[in-house]
Structure formats: C-alpha cells, structure tokens
Here is the input.
Amino acid sequence: MILLIYMQRIEREWIMDLIRLIEEKSAGIAVVGMGYVGLPTAAVLAAKGFRVVGADINPSVVACVNRGTSPINEPGLEELVREAVANGKLKAVLSAREAARESDVVIVVVQTPIDEEKRPDLSALKSALRDVAVALRKEHLVIIESTIPPGTTRNVIAPILEESGLKAGEDFFLAYSPERAIPTRTLAEIQSNARIVGGVNRASSQVAAALYRQITSGDVYEESVEVVEVVKLIENTFRDVNIALANELALLCETIGVDVIKAINLANKHPRVNLHMPGAGVGGHCLPKDPYFLINEAERHGLKLKVIEAARERNDSMPLHVLSKIEEALKSKGKSVSQAKVAVLGIAYKGNTDDVRLSPAEPVIKSLMNRGVDVISHDPYAKHDFGGRFSNDLKEVVAGADVVVILTDHDEYKKLRLEEIKPLLKRDAVVIDGRRVLSRENVEKVGLRYAGIGC
Ligand SMILES: NC(=O)c1ccc[n+]([C@@H]2O[C@H](COP(=O)([O-])OP(=O)(O)OC[C@H]3O[C@@H](n4cnc5c(N)ncnc54)[C@H](O)[C@@H]3O)[C@@H](O)[C@H]2O)c1
Here is the structure.
C-alpha cells in the first residue's frame, strides 16, 4: 500500500514536471513530418516560444526550412518560418530519431494515404515511429496528429514505440490529437480551433492537453483515444457525404433547369440546414481517403457503410460529369473532340492552395488527353501538368481554346477579366464553370456561352 502511494506520488510529480516545462515553454518539441500540417504546426509552436526541431525525410523540405523559406504555399507561413529560423527557435533535420533525441515532446504528422485497393497505408507512419522509438526515453510525450483508422494508437502505434522497452502510459505518455485546420487558413485555425485529445491513459491526455492549451485559444477536450480516433473520421466523412448530397442535387437541378446554388443558398437559410457546395470533384489528402478508414474498419466487422460508400462514389464521379459537359459543349459546336482545344483553369484541388493531391484536375486532364483533345492547363500556385501541357501564362493557355473549364476556385479565377479573354478564344467558345465562380450573366454579357455545375 505504501509502495502504491509512493509510486502514485512519483507519477504525479513526473506529470507535473512535464506540464511545467510545457507551460514555461521550455519543453523542446520535435515535429516529425513537415508537410501541409507539420510545418505550420512547427512554425506556430516556434512563434509561441518553444524550441522546435522539425524532421522530414525529404532533403529539399529540410533545406528549404533551414533557409527560412516554406516549401508550400500557405498564407503567412513563409514569414513565420523565416522569423523562427532567424531567431533560432526552429531548425530542420533529416532524421526523426535526431529530432526526438533533442526533445521532450514528439509530434508525428506524416502522411497516411490509402493504397490502390483503398485500404489505409500506414507505412510512412510506422517508419517514422520506428525512428522515434530508437530515441524514446522515459517521460517523453508522443502525440500523433496524422489521421489514422480506429484502434491504431493502441494496436499499432503503442507496440512500435514499445519496441524501445518502455511502456506507453507508464514510462512515456502517448496521445492522439488530430489536426482540423483547413489549408489556406491553417495558421489561424491551429491557434483558434477547438482541439480533441485522446491519451492511452488519463495522464497522457492531461499532458497533451496542456500542450494544446499553449497553442489554441479554442477549447481543449480530453477523451479516450478510441473516441478521438473516430471523431476525426466522422468530421471528414460528414463533409464528404454533405458534398455528395450537394453534388447529387446539382445533377438533378441541371436536368430540371433549376440553379442548384440559388436553391442551396436559400435552403441554408433554414436554421437546421447546412448544405455544402457542389463542384467538379473532391480532392486533397483528407476527404477522398478518410471515409475509407471507416469503410474498411466496418468491413472488418462485416458491416457495409452504404451511405458513406455511395457518397465517395458520387464525389469521385464528378470529374467525369465535367468531362461529359465538355463533350456536350463541343458537340453543340459541331466540333469533334480530337480537333478541339480545352483550357483547364486550376490544377490544385482547392482554391488558393498549391496542393494537387487527388485533385479532380487529374482525371479530367488525363481523360481529355486519352480522347485526343489538345489540353493545356494553368494554375497560379500549383506547378503540375498531370502529363499534359502547362503554363503559368493565362493568356497563352486560353489562346485558341474552344472550351475553358474552371476546376479550382482560386481568387484569380473569380476575378477573371472576361472581356480580355474573349478575343483570345475561338468564336462561340464555352466556359464550363466547375466551381461556380463566375456568374452566367457576366459570361454571356461578353458573348461567351456558359455551362456550370448544377445549372
Ligand atoms: N493536409 C491537410 O489539410 C490535413 C488536415 C488535417 C489532417 N491531415 C492529416 O495530417 C497528416 C499529414 O498530412 P499532410 O497533408 O501534412 O501530409 P504531407 O504529405 O504534406 O506531409 C507529410 C510529410 O512527412 C514526411 N515524412 C514521411 N515519412 C517520414 C518519416 N519517416 N520521417 C520524417 N518525415 C517523414 C514527408 O516527406 C512529408 O513532407 C495526414 O495523416 C493527413 O491525413 C491533413
């Protein structure tokens, strides 16, 4: 009994010591994986006063950060990285082991994609964890921010870290706290969104929550790790299903001659309706893959998630719908597909970002090329061609085009100078608005034809 009380007191002191280090900002923090989430996280932590070591296996990312620049386009990030590197609060290294060795807290935020069979691919996460395990010591706090399938923290992550000989929850703290920030507003959202934290035991939740209270002004909720793993997947699945509903309504509205955007905007005036917007497809490193983490888990238990699967299918079908609109437009001009030139505006999956992962532009461009169409694409941020021609010069891209198709809601496209573009296009050209960024009236006013998703 006396021994138990003694052990509990030691444990309490140990928790309090790390919380004190965190609150005084003297805890060293390793961020493993410096991509779209990791680098903003590292930069914000450094701006808050922590000493941060970022690790990434990509040498160009490490070199870029150590030069005080950002390898990704995220508003405000470059300035924050420059300042943090200049004042010695942030540095980048190639090895997670080295970063973990220098730190008290290790945040792991590497990619967790799906494979070709749409099953979770945790290879990057496992490899990063094996590196961390080598440097793990007593009283370390390890936080996973990568999105993961249900049960992963306890059944996959803890055993890898325990190869160190230390026990999760007893010798080191282990928690899961998924990132919820949206690209283009990542820096503000990291510092203001509510945060959910799930530890493998109460002490792990407490210590991890203490860290997030230093980062965000939003509420920090502590729950079991099993609940938190599901929460993150519910959030993105909700958004994916909501968009699928909007897309389905868009298809219906096109058929019956109703403008879906007008209809959704008015429906959203209802106090309990909050429909997202339809579009040319769903991309990025979250919505097209996170629902599969739930679908796969359900399958393992003999359950079929019909609504979630149907939503994925509907959203994946939208680039093909854009394609059929392009073909329709060409047919109505009496033009054969193989003689046509199509200008694609927008390679990134989302407005004002350079992220092209799982972007709807890929299937659209590749299918057009397979049909023999002369395709050229443009993007103000992303520099990717998906195998076709690409240029940053908008005028060059639209010159001689029969069809201009907008696939990304970049601000630049919302402000498109139609009167300047019109003379460059073929006579009777069609604008296909896959993101509903232009008004039909404005397009038709300059003498162009307009076809948008859902109208
Ligand atoms: N992008 C988003 O908007 C977003 C939002 C919320 C959550 N998430 C989740 O966050 C996680 C990271 O997403 P991301 O978009 O930042 O991915 P990313 O691909 O942009 O970044 C991951 C980085 O980790 C690096 N990496 C891979 N293996 C490594 C290793 N062993 N050691 C060190 N570095 C390694 C990669 O080189 C890459 O730079 C994913 O699980 C994702 O689902 C992403």
